């Protein structure tokens, strides 16, 4: 389970302090898919980037099964980061590495033994249904295939939480569908928690259990997907 409590992140502009995330709290259960929607500039990316400390928040707590990620030292964070995977709109794969090398990367960082890495990579390739591309380079893959590889890399260390920042936004409907069914497989098979930013209402409606609406750094509404989209 992940609990975010009173999270704040501000940036210094020329003269003033700008609160990109201004006191956000929510919690997500194991096996749940939590959506974050809202206009561009609402603070969604900054919020999610604070959860894995790509950004350093100014205030608040991020508890993963009770451990406050924000209180960890650099060394402890390295260990705990393998509990949080992340994917991006633009995939962010290593272009000079093969599919297998991309997926191996977090396992090597975590010092997993070589033979185990090989086994895990094959398992993940099977999971994302892309065995035939094991030795291909990202440039040889379609957008949907690239995102599947990015997902395999993000879940390689079997994290508790998968973060997605517009993970389907660059994809056509068919590829979007394949990524969403992969998300569903991840929560049912691995019991992970998924927190996903999307501007695609249909995507949020289709897959999220609960949704938070962000505006000006705050959550202005949070509800089950069913309630949120219920016609008045
Ligand atoms: P969203 O993901 O909802 O589009 P962001 O989290 O990307 O919103 O951005 C929220 C606000 O914070 C925006 O006004 C953006 O310009 C600002 N912001 C984001 N990152 C930085 C940064 N590194 N430095 C300064 N301002 C930033
Ligand atoms: P998105 O809309 O997907 O959130 P953005 O274009 O807002 O993407 O942000 C892309 C990157 O630029 C992020 O790493 C964000 O932190 C950074 N960024 C956004 N706004 C600013 C800003 N005003 N100053 C510096 N960095 C920013």
TrEMBL record:
Transmembrane segments: none annotated. One of its GO terms (cellular component) is plasma membrane. GO terms for biological process: amino acid transport. One of its GO terms (molecular function) is ATP hydrolysis activity. The keyword Metal-binding does not apply. It comes from the Bacteria. Keywords: Amino-acid transport, ATP-binding, Cell membrane, Membrane, Nucleotide-binding, Translocase, Transport. Residues 2-232 form the ABC transporter domain. The keyword Phosphoprotein does not apply. Belongs to the ABC transporter superfamily. This is ATP-binding cassette domain-containing protein.
């Amino acid at each position: 389970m992940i609990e975010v409590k009173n999270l704040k992140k501000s940036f210094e502009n020329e003269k003033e302090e700008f609160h990109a995330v201004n006191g956000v709290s929510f919690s997500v259960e194991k096996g749940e898919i939590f959506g974050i929607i809202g206009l561009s500039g609402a603070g969604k990316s900054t919020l999610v980037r604070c959860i894995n400390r790509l950004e350093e928040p100014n205030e608040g707590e991020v508890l993963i099964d009770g451990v406050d990620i924000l209180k960890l030292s650099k060394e402890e964070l390295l260990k705990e980061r393998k509990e949080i995977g992340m994917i991006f709109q633009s995939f962010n794969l290593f272009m000079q590495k093969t599919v297998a090398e991309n997926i191996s990367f977090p396992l090597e960082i975590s010092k997993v033994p070589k033979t185990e890495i090989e086994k895990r990579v094959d398992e993940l390739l099977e999971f994302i249904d892309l065995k035939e591309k094991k030795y291909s380079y990202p440039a040889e893959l379609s957008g949907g295939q690239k995102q599947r590889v990015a997902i395999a890399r993000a879940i390689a260390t079997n994290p508790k939480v998968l973060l997605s920042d517009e993970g389907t936004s660059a994809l056509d409907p068919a590829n979007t569908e394949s990524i969403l069914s992969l998300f569903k497989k991840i929560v049912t098979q691995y019991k992970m928690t998924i927190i996903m930013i999307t501007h695609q209402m249909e995507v949020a409606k289709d897959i999220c259990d609960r949704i938070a609406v962000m505006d000006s750094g705050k959550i202005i509404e949070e509800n089950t997907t069913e309630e949120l989209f219920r016609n008045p």
